[in-house]
Design brief:
382 residues, alpha+beta, 12 helices, rod-shaped
């Protein structure tokens, strides 16, 4: 399903031909009442009785259309009209007039669910006892009319609940699709920020280094510019992968890139040479942490040294700069905000703040993987 709306099949089930067929099928009851009029009275009385039944049929159809179009007040007024015509039909159709009562009680059950039980009970008892109680009708209990009213009304009420539930399901599926689309847009935006932030920072740093080297060592300057070209190509590939949803970040690759980035920025790097201490389930997340943390060190810290410490459940990035290497504090900066979202999804925590008078620390901690030993804090890979 897309965010363009509910699927056609769902729409037909909630709003379509099944409801129309049920409503049309109920017209058999005015037809039975008309037959009752023909059997009970004749002449002008028959004409008048058939006119009442015809008026009821028109009122019933108009009420169904009003209800389908969401005009509840109009449907209620037309239901009241049907009730009046049902009563008016009794002198002409006697017990068969209760077939019209089936339509009235069905509308009441749909429009006023809280009164459905009372309406069905009253209609059924009335159809059963009134033909027997009114002696001029010369009839016994209206078993057939009572059963028709009872089961038809229950069917209409049950179908109405099913249709309402399906409408809610259609709306819920549309909302789920909208939220999924929004979540995907947020993921792409977050990934693009993290990817481009790191890549463009590295390109900027290497470009400046190439400018400084141009006057001293042209060969090294050309080498740095070639690295800039490689970074640009990699950034383009990363953007395409992020948009496609197949972006893969590995901790080992980010450490290698981070080492090169810090070297180009003139920062002494103290980075782990292995990632074995980290569970495979956490390596991608820690890779994002290293990417964001080292990018911010180069951008903001003005540091001379930077270290990354790894354990089985944590990754920590420290620098000795006077600036804000790990971010601008809780809630500040899109990069750190995006990182908090990633860590929260893994049930982890983020700590970012200054280290004494000088330096900054970014630390991410995640739950241990069951059954996997991990090094205590401070004893991870270096």
């Amino acid at each position: 399903m897309t965010d363009q709306g509910p699927e056609p099949g769902s729409h037909r089930w909630a709003y379509g031909w099944r409801r129309i067929m049920l409503a049309t099928g109920m017209l058999v009851y005015p037809a039975l009442t008309a037959l009752g009029v023909s059997h009970t009275v004749a002449g002008a009385w028959a004409v008048a009785g058939h006119a009442v039944v015809a008026a009821f049929t028109v009122c019933y159809a108009a009420g169904g259309i009003a209800f389908a179009r969401g005009r509840r007040r109009q449907a209620e007024l037309l239901t009241a009209g049907q009730a009046a015509l049902f009563v008016a039909a009794m002198p002409f159709a006697h017990a068969d007039a209760f077939f019209l009562g089936t339509g009235v009680v069905s509308f009441v059950a749909v429009l006023f669910p809280a009164r459905a039980t009372a309406a069905v009970a009253a209609g059924t008892v009335g159809a059963l006892l009134l033909p027997w109680a009114v002696r001029p009708w010369h009839a016994g209990p209206g078993w057939f009319q009572a059963l028709a009213l009872l089961f038809s009304t229950l069917t209409v009420r049950g179908f109405s609940e099913i249709a309402t539930t399906n409408q809610e399901l259609v709306a819920a599926r549309a909302e789920v699709a909208r939220l999924a689309s929004e979540a995907e847009r947020n993921r792409i935006a977050r990934d693009l920020h993290d990817l481009l932030g790191h890549s463009l920072t590295a390109i900027t740093v290497k470009s400046r280094l190439a400018q400084r080297l141009a006057a001293k060592d042209l060969a090294l300057a050309v080498e740095e510019m070639a690295a800039v070209e490689d970074l640009s190509r990699q950034a383009l590939a990363d953007v395409r992968a992020a948009v496609s949803g197949y972006r893969e970040v590995t901790l080992a690759a980010e450490l290698a890139r981070g080492r090169e980035l810090l070297r180009a920025a003139g920062v002494v790097a103290d980075l782990p040479g292995a990632t074995d201490a980290v569970a495979p389930a956490h390596r991608e997340l820690f890779g994002w942490v290293v990417r964001e943390g080292l990018t911010n060190v180069v951008r903001h810290a003005r540091a001379e040294r930077c270290a990354v410490l790894l354990t089985g459940t944590s990754v920590e990035i420290r620098d000795d700069g006077p600036g804000k290497g790990g971010g601008a504090g809780p809630g500040d900066g899109k990069g750190l905000a995006g990182l908090r979202e990633r860590v929260a999804a893994a049930d982890g925590s983020v700590e970012a703040g200054p280290l004494g008078q000088r330096g900054w620390r970014l630390r991410v901690t995640v739950p241990a993987v069951p059954g996997r030993p991990h090094a205590p804090a401070g004893e991870g890979s270096r």
